[in-house]
Design brief:
Mean pLDDT: 83
Distance between the termini: 50 Å
Strand order of the largest sheet: 16-21-20-14-22-23
Helix content: 40-55%
Low-confidence stretches: 555-600, 610-640
Number of strands: 25
Shape: elongated
Length: 640
């Protein structure tokens, strides 16, 4: 704790010193910045000629040139930002602009797109005879990190006297030179591969960045350099998607990378977690597009596979509505909801391991339901995972048992039955608090061997990052959305894989530090209760027996299980024929179905608030007090 405080003090001291330095030297920095626009005497970097009133300054080379040297140097270095300082005037030069000393004006010259020169002439087959020349009357648009540059197309001329043939550069020549075409046949627009790589990392490190806004930034950069700011959005989108997919194919086919596997999970793989994020939806009104998905189902499972699986289960077991566990109602079992009526894809289902690596993902066309959960569980079971974590694992296991019963004689019955036995349910720590105590005893992840430290919220941590992509995917075409989310998942898994060694070492160090403190805390708790560690299996077995008895003796009426209302049944014995009255309560006033424990706790709180509970020594008086308070709360609610 003291070390953290010392670090914070040192950081605050450094920040304060930086602020003081800026306050002290602010005027000098501004003076130098304004003076940098003035025409000052200088020397040509190449010929060392003295420069006074007319010279060119390159902001990329950070050098000054005389007009002759500038023409020789920047005919082959086209992607530089140059400024002409002429007397008291500063002129921004484009790539094809050069200063003519004789005419004292800026003139345009042909400048070819810089390319690697092929080693051999295709006509005479001689080595090292080709030279680069700009092709007249054919222009190219090249997009770099500095914006748009308008240049001439490149051609290669054989310098041998016996040949002398000239051939225009092909798409292959441009790609080999580090460019990426917007179209494989129409090479009028090229993007540098550094520009494509920069966009790839920008859209995944800042997920809410739209492609149009990124192009606008490039256009602004072009305007700052005095060039044309217009960039073709169709060429940009197709070039970026093709560039990302080619890199994906290189990793998968050539490097043999397994993008959807966790290298830290070795057989038998212990823990997996499934959940759904509804922020990654797509509107029905979004454009359909003219392109097919490049990734297909290599990352995100195809809709056809999901539909076939769901249809197969629907033949055996029809749909139903909401599910609940005690007083908590869950929407996981419902097939459709009205809030999805304007959406075509309603969300993304995903499953990950305890290291946060996404193992499988699929689009949802409707609300979350157990048939889709069953598909994910079956996939995870086939790749060797033992524990299946789900927020409503108790109700899902009931669904799975019913499905196995009704599927007798079905082709997949044996496989589903083995899956239900070999794969164990896992209830997360935080979501488990909303379930009844017997459900927590049966499915609590803390009982699961070799996975008890898992929180069951790993997929939620993944979704915390994925949710930001919803701002740009909701208006995409189906193909663009599928490719964009596939890139998202692969990029996420790559970052997890790159930091896996550090993360595992950090977890091991953290566990070793906490081991002694945790053991001491456990010893104190055991001594307070007069227990030993060897008593734990018996205690757990007893809890499981009590949970089993509780479930078998549960006599809750169907009115309590209704997902659309919460009821409180008060019995007032006025006569022998008095009936139970049903009242609807607000969400803040719930009755516990297992013995009215919540009502009793609320009554004690009200007694402490409105009066001294020690003065109520008569049980009848206490009952009368709590009854009056309940009626008062109910009356206030009706008035509201």
């Amino acid at each position: 704790m003291q070390d953290n405080e010392d670090k914070m003090k040192k950081h605050a001291k450094r920040m304060g010193q930086i602020a003081e330095d800026w306050d002290e030297h602010w005027e000098r920095v501004v003076e130098v910045h304004i003076g940098s626009y003035a025409t000052l005497p200088s020397l040509c970097w190449n010929c060392k000629t003295s420069l006074t009133s007319c010279y060119i300054r390159c902001l990329c080379c950070v050098k000054t040139f005389c007009p002759e040297c500038d023409s020789q140097f920047h005919l082959w270095n086209a992607f530089h930002q140059r400024q002409l300082l002429f007397n008291a005037e500063l002129i921004k030069l484009r790539s094809r602009d050069f200063w003519d000393q004789n005419l004292s004006v800026v003139v345009e010259r042909d400048v070819a797109v810089p390319c690697f020169i092929p080693p051999r002439c295709k006509s005479c087959r001689r080595l090292n005879t080709l030279v680069t020349e700009p092709k007249k009357n054919k222009f190219m648009i090249v997009i770099t990190l500095l914006g748009r540059f308008d240049l001439n197309a490149t051609s290669f001329k054989c310098s041998h006297p016996a040949c002398g043939i000239t051939e225009e550069a092909s798409v292959r020549n441009y790609v080999e030179s580090g460019y990426w075409p917007g179209s494989p046949t129409r090479t009028c627009t090229l993007f540098t591969q550094t520009y494509m790589t920069h966009w790839f990392h920008t859209k995944h490190q800042i997920p809410s960045t739209a492609a149009m806004k990124y192009m606008e930034v490039s256009g602004k950069m072009s305007s700052e350099g005095g060039r044309n700011p217009v960039i073709n959005p169709i060429m940009f989108r197709t070039a970026s998607s093709q560039f990302s997919y080619i890199n994906h194919m290189i990793d998968v086919d050539i490097k043999q990378d397994e993008k959807m596997r966790c290298k830290a999970c070795v057989l038998p793989c212990m823990y997996s977690h499934f959940d759904v994020i509804f922020k990654l939806y797509r509107y029905k009104a979004a454009r359909s597009g003219h392109f097919k998905s490049l990734y297909g189902d290599s990352v995100i499972v195809s809709d056809e596979k999901i539909e076939v699986h769901v249809a197969e289960i629907n033949k055996l077991k029809p749909q139903k509505g909401y599910d609940n566990c005690g007083n908590s109602t869950y929407k996981a079992g419902k097939e459709t909801t009205s809030r999805h009526r304007t959406q075509y894809e309603t969300g993304l289902g995903s499953a990950c391991c305890r290291h946060g690596v996404v193992l499988v993902a699929a689009n949802l066309k409707t609300g979350e339901n157990y048939r889709i959960v069953h598909f994910f569980q079956h996939f995870l079971w086939t790749i060797g995972y033992i524990y299946f974590c789900y927020d409503v694992i108790c109700n899902y296991e009931k669904f799975l048992k019913d499905l196995i019963k009704v599927s007798e004689g079905h082709l997949l019955h044996g496989e589903w039955a083995r899956m239900s036995k070999e794969m164990v349910g896992f209830l997360s720590v935080l979501h488990g608090r909303t379930h009844t105590w017997d459900c927590q005893v049966d499915n609590n992840g803390r009982w699961r061997e070799w996975a008890c430290a898992s929180l069951g919220e790993e997929q939620e941590q993944v979704f915390a990052r994925f949710a930001k992509y919803g701002l740009v995917t909701k208006h995409m075409s189906p193909a663009s959305r599928n490719d964009h989310l596939s890139e998202m998942i692969e990029n996420h898994n790559k970052e997890k894989d790159d930091g896996m060694d550090y993360a595992l070492a950090k977890r091991a160090k953290k566990a070793s530090i906490k081991q002694n403190a945790t053991q001491k805390k456990l010893d104190v708790l055991l001594s307070q209760r007069g227990l030993k560690e060897t008593d734990f299996p018996g205690i757990l077995k007893k809890l499981q027996q009590l949970a089993y008895e509780k479930r078998n003796n549960d006599t809750v009426t169907e009115d309590f299980k209704s997902p659309h209302k919460e009821n409180l049944i008060e019995s007032e014995t006025v006569g022998t024929n008095e009936k139970k009255k049903e009242k609807k309560l607000p969400n803040s006033f719930k009755a516990d179905l297992e013995g009215h424990f919540m009502t009793a706790a609320w009554a004690r709180k009200m007694m402490n608030k409105y009066g001294e509970h020690n003065s109520y020594k008569n049980d009848d008086l206490k009952h009368s007090f709590t009854s009056n308070i309940s009626k008062q709360k109910w009356t206030n609610h009706q008035r509201a």
